[in-house]
Amino acid sequence: METPAAWLTRLYEAHFTPICAYLRRKYGPGPPDPEDVTQHAFMQISRMSADAASRIEHPKSFIYRAAENALISEMRKEHTRKVHARETHASQIATDGYDFDPESVLVSRDELAVIEAAIRDMPERRRLCFLMNRMDEMSFAEIGRHLSISPTAARNHVERAMEDIELAVAAYSGEAP
Amino acid sequence: MTAAPKLDDDQLRRQARAWVVRMSDPQVTDVDRAAFNAWIASNTSHATAYQHVLRLYNGAETLRGAFSSAPRAPSRPRGARGLPLLVGISTVLAAAFFLFVLISPSRMDPISPDFQTARGEVRTVQLNDGSAVTLGAATSLDLAFTQDERRVRIGAGEAFFDVRHDPSRPFVVETAEGEVRVLGTAFDVKSANGLLRVAVARGLVQVDERRAIRLPIMSSPGHRLSAGEEIVLGGANARDVVVTQATHAPAAWRDGFLAYQSARLGEVVADANRYSARPIRLADPELAQLQVTAFYPSDQLEQMLTGLEDALPVRVERGEREIVIRAAR
Hints:
The structure holds two protein chains of two kinds.
Chain A: H1 4-27, H2 34-46, H3 50-54, H4 59-83, H5 88-100, H6 102-105, H7 109-121, H8 124-134, H9 140-147, H10 151-172
Chain B: H1 10-23, H2 30-42, H3 44-59, H4 83-90, E1 95-102, E2 115-116, E3 123-126, E4 132-135, E5 140-145, E6 150-156, E7 159-163, E8 171-174, E9 178-182, E10 185-189, E11 195-202, E12 204-209, E13 223-226, E14 229-233, E15 242-246, E16 257-264, H5 265-272, E17 280-282, E18 291-297, H6 301-311, E19 314-318, E20 323-327
Parallel strand pairs in B: 1-10, 6-8, 17-20
Antiparallel strand pairs in B: 1-11, 2-5, 3-4, 4-7, 5-6, 7-10, 8-9, 9-12, 11-14, 12-13, 14-15, 16-18, 19-20
Helix pairs in contact in B: 1-3, 2-3
């Protein structure tokens, strides 16, 4: 069994730079700075309890998701800091809990099964658009060209697909849709 | 563990979903990013809602192996993502700018325009020079293309131009308040009460006021704007209103959002009227001067009205025939 420090070091060496590149490609150069945020995410993980760390099934997915969550929270906080300085403290604590809790970051095995079933139940075109977008990482322009529809239509299909997935997961967890 | 965020607001869910999907596009633009930033910043619940949808969206990636890509498109190599950047560098000289003109409808050309959109309609047309124009709601536009010049006149409304580069035939957008010249590329035009607004996304543009005295050869210096800047030129009696400020989510309307940073309420309402089935009226003209920062989907005017009530000392009367905005007592 690997020690937590070795586990984290390996994770850091393998993924720090690719995570920064992923965040920069998706959300731009910031602020918040993608490297600062990723660094912060690794620090938070190093402080996780052994119990929480043991619940991480997919460390790579986890650190990507945690860093992305942290970036979004930071974007929000950048604004909050400027506008409502007094709210910052409370929101920071609450947000960090959400960003790095394994269950809040990753989907469970059961949820994955629900998502897979939802994808299989989709009308063909919706499913195709979603798979091209999510699995093949094609742009909406490319998907549109491929299916002879507009990029906007392709995007709308993917939105409907996400709605299907959200509803299926909500029904599974017994939430009101 | 932290409880999942409570998202009982359908609208919030829908917006969050739309953003997760939009931001997943490998070709996401700076305009999208700016609009996304504005959305995240505009309400503390937005980040939580976005993360909630993102968890499922990102989680689905794990199923890649379960869905063979064979029946789908030939998956392009992952490394190909660098390509748009190279294209971006090669067109670095091209200017993209957004011009937004506010003209009262009475000043519209009585002759039927070349292009006209209905209230709430957004449409893209291809021009014969290879340029493309996206017309916003309630927009009219006339073309006058010659050997030497491509001239477009905006009667009313708003349009985004993606101009084919052609140094020998400058592209000129003419409005009642002035004109904007480019050699190539992309800009946006909007129309509703005696104001001319130009916002530059990238590159450099020159804006000439119509009333400025122009010599036949040497044009007046006009106003030069570079990327990220915006200028507001006043109408008939407001020559002195020249504001240069950082621009914010320009032309977000093309994606179905209306975005304003430190805008006047009069402008926000004039735009909303190009989308709203029920006319929106200010009970007191002075209300038009109130400063507003707003961001909302153009098909969700109720969201905008509620936002105004929250942010400004106004109350909104939602009548059957019209919507009236009054000063709060």
